[in-house]
Amino acid sequence: MSGTNRPSNGYEKKDPGIALSVEHVSFAYDADLVLKDINLTVAEGEFVAVLGPSGCGKTSLLRLLAGLEKPGSGNVLHQGNPVTGPNILRGVVFQDYSLFPWLNLQDNLTIAINKARKGLGRAERNKIAEEYLDLVGLQGMAFKHPYEISGGMRQRAAIARSLALGSPVLLMDEPFGALDPVNRVRLQDLLLQLCRSSSTRRTIVFVTHDVEEALYLGDRVVVLGTTPGRVIADIDVPFDGKLQRSDLFQAKEFRQLEEEISALYHEDIERQLEAGSVAFGEGELI
Amino acid sequence: MNEPLHNTVTHKKRIKVFKGFEGMLLFVVLALCWQLASTLLPLRNAALYPTPAVTFKALQDSLPELLKGTWSSFLILIPGYCLAVILGAVWGIVVGSVTWIHRAFDPFAKVAAPIPPTVYIPYAIALMPTFRVSAIMVVFIGAFWPVFVNAAAGAASVPLRYRDNAGILGFGRFEYMRRVAFPAALPNIFSGMAVGLALAFILLTVAELFGANQGLGRFVQYYADYADYPRMVAGILYTGVVTFTSMALLDFVKRRVLFWVR
User: Fold this and answer.
1) Residues whose CB falls within 8 Å of the CB of residue A273, separated by 6 or more in sequence, listed in order
2) Nearest-angstrom CA–CA distance, B44 and A248
3) Using the beta-carbon criterion (under 8 Å), do A102 and B183 form an inter-chain contact?
């Protein structure tokens, strides 16, 4: 992120309609209650980071928003309509498996382009795929297969695919979780830059367990506690995005917020330890 | 310091040559045993044990006949096997992907698949107008089940991540089967195809013992009837080579198609 506006605050100029709302949602896997009475609204064009430790059900929350799971009770709404299944209106980027391994990057993208804009010729689709690959810095990689490229490149391609899908809502499940720190930073900046540059702001829900990442990317950070997952804090991120990455990380307010959230984390975990029910290393992949 | 380095390189090369050689060793040993047994052992019925030299002479002499037989056999094998692969894969994907079809078809498949396909041969010959059609049918039945069972298992166990992706891309049922379930099940389909091909060869040769007037199985049976054991053994060896080549070809195709499987 180099000296440009962070995408925050931009949406406030428009009427912030509600994109997604989660109303009293509970969700269980078999007998285990994963999410308990979650309430959450996400405004149009808002970038919400959902932050929580392993096993807090943040992936389940994302899958509910995507329509890949159905809530045990409560409602998940997209623009006021109940979410009944996955829909290309809500694109998803997973941690490391958004692409089909048997297709090269171009074909992985044209599948999405085909869905977003019907009736295009093959040449046109390929050209658009090329454009999106350029956008994420994968020039000349169209004919590579996922197994031939690094994890960072795969995630770039996954982002390109979700952009090509043209979904107004983008759900991201720890998309940079499996990357090394350098690539992670580069992709965070790429994501912000892409959000910023598009004329219509996308609504993004970004799941992560990394406090810094959540604060850096999100306009708002929703903190989940564990066992069962529930919202323990909902924090507006006050930085106005004119700061550079390094300045931001040094800013006093940023550090304070980070400490606050970390304290919330630890409080919750300690409470769980006392209750004797926290399971280390279980639950979702990190 | 150059020389020791040079030495290690040649040493490595020697090991490499030896590694390729290992696989051939058993063949050489077996051929040697064959030679020794057929020439030195005081066997009671020597005609049953042709020496390698005699056998290879017989192989050479009957090569035109064997090639013609191969052609005839392949006219049965290829249609039967290809039909089995296409229908087995397609139907397997459908049964593995659509729950109600699975529920409807699975009990029948569980009963029908384990029946040894050789028992169909006499009935198929009685049922069908020509021997060729009946043999094709038997090869088809034999190769169909392994392909089908594997394709269905592969389609039913498509990893969640691919199914999630299909959902997110808004794939309909047909598109899901064609673009996700089929490629995801391809490794299983190829396993089924290998089993199916081996079975197809067995069924082909057995069927030819029953009623063919040419073909690989028929060749062996014919010269056994006339006690021409050099030609019979030559036929067995030749059939082995044909089967091996076919399996190797399938393996080659598999490697090309499944390049993305690591």
Assistant:
1) none
2) 96
3) yes
State residue A9's pLDDT score. Answer: 36
B122 in reach of chain A (CB within 8 A): no
B180 in A contact zone (CB under 8 Å): yes
Q: What's the pLDDT tens digit per position in B156-185?
A: 999 998 999 998 888 889 999 999 999 999
* A226 DSSP assignment: T
How deeply is B223 buried, as exposed, middle or buried, from its count of CB atoms within 10 A (0-12, 13-18, 19+)?
Answer: buried
Instruction: List C-alpha distances in Å: A276 to A29, A34, A58, A202, A269.
Output: 20, 17, 21, 41, 10
Min Cα–Cα distance to chain B from A100, Å: 7
Reported ipTM = 0.77
pLDDT in tens, B12-38: 555 555 667 778 888 899 988 888 888
Beta-sheet pairing, A81-82 with A73-78: antiparallel
Whether B165 has its CB under 8 Å from any CB of chain A: the answer is yes
- The DSSP bridge partners found for residue A236 are A220
Among A86, A145, A147, select the one facing B168 at the smallest CB separation. Answer: A86
Strands A220-225 and A230-236: antiparallel
Interface check for B167 against chain A (CB to CB < 8 A): the answer is: yes
Q: What's the confidence (pLDDT) of residue A276?
A: 59
Question: What is the sign of the dihedral through the CA atoms of B218, B223, B226 and B229?
Answer: negative
Long-range contacts of B159-164 (CB under 8 A, 24+ apart): B159/B184, B161/A94, B161/A97, B162/A100, B164/A66, B164/A68, B164/A86, B164/A92, B164/A94
Please check the confidence at residue B242 and state whether its pLDDT lies above 90. yes
With CB atoms and an 8 Å threshold, state whether A88 touches B262: no
pTM for this predicted structure: 0.81
Asked if A134 and A182 count as a contact pair (C-beta separation under 8 A), the reply is no
Rounded CA-CA distance A229/A213 in Å is 20
Task: Count the helix, strand and coil residues of chain B and give each as a percent rounded to the nearest 5.
Answer: 85, 0, 15
Spatial separation of the C-alpha atoms in residues B211 and B240, rounded to whole Å: 21
CB contact under 8 A, B168 and A88: yes
Are A8 and A240 contacting, i.e. CB atoms less than 8 angstroms apart?
yes
- The answer to whether A143 faces chain B, any CB pair under 8 Å, is no
